[in-house]
């Protein structure tokens, strides 16, 4: 089963509330086998809407990432991000020969 990338592009509008989201989201992601491979690192926007924060996590599968997102622990964390950020989130399955 191919691994999957969870890719978020975020503009934080309330840093305190978003910090509470991050406190809960990290453990929920790890609990579902997710591992951060890029988070708030240097970036260049070449096309599209610029967002100041970018996060990429790798999961064992697309299903594991989706299960994480729908989990009670992640949804509880996400409650803090709602209204505290503008976010785009996508999960994409890696091609068979990708290595991460």
TrEMBL record:
Q: Which residues form the DUF1330 domain?
A: 3-93
So which domain of life are we looking at?
Bacteria
InterPro entries the UniProt entry points to: Dimeric_a/b-barrel, DUF1330
A Pfam family that this protein carries is DUF1330
Q: What is this protein called?
A: DUF1330 domain-containing protein
